[in-house]
Amino acid sequence: MFGSVSAIIGSGWLFSGYYSSQMAGPAAILSWIAASILIIIVAFTFAEISTLLPVPGGSSHLPNATHGIIVSVVFSWISWLTVAVLPTIEVQAVLQYASYFFPWLSKDPNSINTSLSVHGYMVAAFLLIIFSIANIYSLRLVMRFNNAIAIWKIIIPILAAITLIVLSFHPSNFSTDGGFMPDGWHGVFAAISAGGIVFAFNGFKNVVELAGEAENPRRTIPFALIGSVFVCLIVYVLLQTAFIGAIPAASLTHGWAGLNFAKSASPLVTLLAMAGSVFMLGVLYVDTMVAPMGAGLMYVTTGARTLQAMSNNWQMPHFLALVNRKGIPTTAILLNLVLSFIFFFPFPGWKLMVDFISSLMAFSYVLGPVCLLALRYQLADRPRTIKLPFGTLWSFLALYICTMIGYWTGWQVIFKLTLFIAFAIAFYLVYRLFSKRARQAPLDFKSAIWMFVYFGGLAIISHFGSFGGGTDQLKFGSDFIVLAVLTAISLFLATKYRVKDEIAARKCDELMLEMKGGE
C-alpha cells in the first residue's frame, strides 16, 4: 500500500490544486472524489489479471497474448512513453518550484505555464543523467531512497495544508465568482483529466505490479488498492481545500478561470509565503525537491523495464534487452535518457506535459478491461485468486471510464495521440521489414479491428465534442451516450476477434515459464 502511496504523491500535489481550481473552481474537490472512485473500478480489472498472470512487462506481453502483435505494439508504445517521460515531468516540477528562489532557472517565474531557461535545461539534463547513473549503478540504492522518503511525502503535504487553513483561509472563496461550481459538471470532469488528477493517481499500478509477490493476494490486493487511493484522496482533498481557501481575493478578480498571482510558477510555496509561515515554507521547499526526484528515480527504473519487455517481445531491436552483470538494462536506460530530455521541447511547462501524459495513462488502462474479458474465454478453466463479479459488466464500465477520462483531455490532445499511434504502427512495420526475428510473429490484423474502431471513433467524437478545442457540435451530455455506444461496440469486437483460445493459452504458459526461469 505504501509503495503505491509513495508513487501517487509525486509532483501532482504541487500543481494539481492550481489547475483543478482554474477548471472547476471549488468543485475541484468533487473532481478528486469522483476520480478516486473511477480509478478503483479500473484498478480492480488489473488486479484480476495481475494475480492470474503475474508477469513483468505486462503492458507488452498481455495484449500480445490476447489480441496479437499489432495491438501489443500500440499499447506497448503508449505504456513505454508514459513511464519513459515521467522523469521529465518530475524534473520540470523540481526546477519550476526552484525558480521561486532561483528565477534564472525558468523564462518567467511569475507564470505557471513557464518553460525552462537555457540554464534550466542544463540543470535538467544534469538531474536526468544522475537518475540514470543511479539506476545503472544500483537498483537497491534507488529502492532504499524511495522507501526512506515515503512517510515524509505523506506528512509534508498534510502539514502544508493545515498551515494554510490555520493562517490564511477565506471561506468566502467557496461561494464567490460563480458559486461552488462555476463551470458546472463540465468543469468537474475536465479537471479530472486536464487538471492533473489522473496523473496524480497513476501510482495505483504499483500495487498490481507487485500482485504476484503477495502471500495472500485475495486479501492484500483489494486492501492495498483501496487503501492507497483512500489515503492519497484524504491528502489531496485536504490540499485542494486549503489551496482554494488560501487564495487572496485579488487573484480572483477575473474568476477562477483567470486565477493568477505573482510567482505562480510555484503556487504552494507562493501561498505559504503570503501566509507568512517561514518555517513551513522552508520545509515545503525541501520537499518540493526531494519528493519529485524520488518519483523520477523510480520511473527511470520502470521505463527501462518496459522498453526491455518490448525488445523481448520482438517489437524493438534486440540490443535494448541487453543487461549488465547486475541484471540492469543499461542500453534501455540510456535510450530513455535521451527521450526524456527531448520531451522538454515540444511540451514546455508542467501543464502541457501532464495533459498529454494523462491521455496516454487513460488509454494504457484500456488493457485492463479488454484483456480481462478476453482472458475469461481464453483461460476459462484457470483458477483466479481474484475474480470480479459480473465480468462483462465490470469490463464495460471500466473501459467506459477509460474512454471518458481520455475524452476529457480534449481534441487537441486526442489528435496528437492519434498521430502517435499511427507513428508507432508505421515504425513497427518498417522495423519488421529489416528484422527476421520480428517477422516470425503473425500480424493478427483481424484481432486489432477493435482497436482501430475504438481510437478512430474516439478521435471523431472528440473533434465534434466540447472538450479541449472540439467544435462543440456534439453537446455536453449527448457525448456521454455516444461514447457509451463506442465502448460497447469496441468491447464486443475485442471479445469476438480475440486471438484463438488455444494460442492465447500457449502464449500465457510460455510467459509464466519464462518468468520462472525456463526457456
Question: How would you portray this structure in words?
Answer:
- This protein starts with a helix and ends with a helix.
- It has one domain (2-358, 380-387): Amino acid/polyamine transporter I, CATH 1.20.1740.
- It has 519 residues and is mainly α.
- The protein has 23 helices and no strands.
Summarize this structure as a short list of keywords or feature phrases.
519 residues; Amino acid/polyamine transporter I; 0% strand
Fold blueprint:
Elements: H1 2-8, H2 12-24, H3 28-52, H4 58-84, H5 86-98, H6 118-137, H7 139-148, H8 150-167, H9 184-194, H10 197-201, H11 205-209, H12 217-246, H13 267-275, H14 278-312, H15 330-342, H16 350-364, H17 367-378, H18 391-408, H19 411-434, H20 436-439, H21 449-464, H22 478-496, H23 501-515
- Helical fraction equals over 70%
CATH topology-level name:
Amino acid/polyamine transporter I
Shape: globular
| Residues in β-strands, percent | under 5%
Total count of domains: 1
Indicate the mean pLDDT: 84
Distance between the termini: 33 Å
Give a quick rundown of the structure.
With 519 residues, the chain is an all-alpha fold. It is built from 23 helices and no strands. Helix 8 packs across helix 13 and helix 18 crosses helix 22.
